[in-house]
Design the sequence.
């Protein structure tokens, strides 16, 4: 007897499986013609498991079925789900996209909850920036207290001590305003942090510019015939500070009125986390604030650089030149670093720039004077300063 052939059908099997054989479970001894030794019962036992032919294997979770062109419906390919989509069943016809608050895992078979991220006080980066701001605020307050205590000494009185007080106070506020950037964003903090920072920094740079102008006027006033003497009063530096900071105040006010910053959940920048951040509103205002500060700093640097070789009693121009060089260098480096980061690291870059530039002004302008007051009090005399000019 010839072996029986079972043709595979398309109910889960491929058409070209017709050549597969399924031997009958029992074949008589006479049909074997001596080719097989018969069993005691006179028959040969063939395994009862019939070969099973399929066109396509089942698609596991994380894949979807894609029909093959020109093939029966039972023939398909298993295609991985696209980025951000999952399928959690076998032989899924399609994948579904995860909600914005979730992300697809590596196997693309499950949606995972995203982690919310912001610059927190409870992490190492937040601790470091907070500690630095507190320490620098303490140093600034100490210098301010020292200048008030020694306000009658020549070093403090030189180049307008009122400007020195105002500059120290504005630097103190610059250090303290960094706390508006750390912690969970709120509507009020988002509205205030960039605008307060812009106005306070403008006051600081305006004070430096006013000091630089006073250096030039003081040197020109040594000529009895010079008309610069009438500009040496206290009104001139105060007017410079007022009008320079007024422009920045107008920019920030327009920003808050037209397109104020607000807190938002950024779910697009990273697939596995949500960035809780402040949306700056109209970014043009933000760059106008930075641009105006850069303009003031550049003018201060140029004027101080041109007057750096004035006589020794007016040598604060050298200190201002170096301080503005540090200030401008920090903010030039800040722009590419700020634009290339996202999330809490973008905020950390700005806080770091605020601390570094403010510390540069504090150290370059005031620490040499503190050194004279505390370490070399014999140099803190009018005769010593006047003697330098000779």
Sequence:
């Amino acid at each position: 007897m010839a072996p029986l052939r079972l043709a595979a059908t398309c109910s889960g099997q491929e058409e070209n499986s017709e050549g597969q054989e399924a031997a009958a479970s029992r074949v008589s001894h006479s049909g074997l013609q001596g080719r097989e030794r018969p069993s005691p019962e006179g028959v040969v036992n063939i395994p009862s498991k019939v070969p099973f032919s399929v066109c396509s294997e089942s698609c596991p979770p994380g894949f979807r079925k894609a029909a093959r062109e020109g093939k029966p419906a039972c023939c398909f390919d298993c295609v991985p789900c696209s980025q951000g989509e999952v399928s959690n069943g076998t032989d899924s016809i399609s994948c579904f996209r995860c909600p914005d608050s979730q992300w697809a895992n590596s196997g693309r078979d499950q949606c995972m909850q995203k982690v919310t991220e912001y610059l927190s006080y409870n992490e190492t980066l937040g601790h470091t920036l907070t500690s630095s701001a507190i320490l620098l605020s303490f140093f600034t307050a100490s210098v301010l207290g020292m200048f008030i205590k020694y306000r009658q000494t020549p070093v403090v009185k030189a180049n307008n001590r009122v400007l020195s007080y105002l500059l120290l106070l504005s630097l103190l506020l610059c250090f303290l305003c960094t706390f508006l950037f750390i912690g969970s964003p709120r509507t009020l903090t988002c509205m205030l942090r960039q605008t307060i920072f812009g106005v306070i920094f403008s006051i600081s740079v305006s004070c430096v510019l006013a000091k630089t102008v006073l250096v030039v006027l003081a040197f020109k006033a040594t000529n009895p015939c010079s008309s610069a003497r009438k500009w040496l009063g206290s009104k001139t530096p105060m007017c410079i500070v007022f009008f320079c900071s007024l422009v920045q105040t107008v920019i920030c006010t327009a920003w808050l009125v037209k397109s104020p910053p607000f807190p938002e959940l950024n779910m697009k920048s990273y697939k596995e986390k949500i960035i809780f951040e402040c949306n700056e509103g109209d970014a043009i205002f933000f760059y106008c604030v930075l641009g105006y500060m850069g303009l003031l700093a550049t003018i201060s640097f140029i004027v101080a650089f041109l007057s750096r070789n004035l006589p020794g009693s007016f040598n604060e121009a050298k200190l201002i030149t170096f301080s503005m060089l540090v200030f401008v260098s920090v903010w030039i480096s800040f722009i590419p670093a700020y634009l290339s980061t996202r999330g809490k690291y973008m905020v950390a870059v700005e806080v770091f720039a605020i601390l570094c530039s403010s510390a540069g002004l504090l150290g370059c302008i005031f620490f040499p004077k503190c050194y004279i007051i505390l370490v070399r009090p014999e140099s803190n005399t009018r005769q010593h300063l006047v003697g330098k000019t000779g």
Remarks:
- The CA atoms of residues 143 and 366 lie 8 Å apart.
- The radius of gyration is 39 Å.
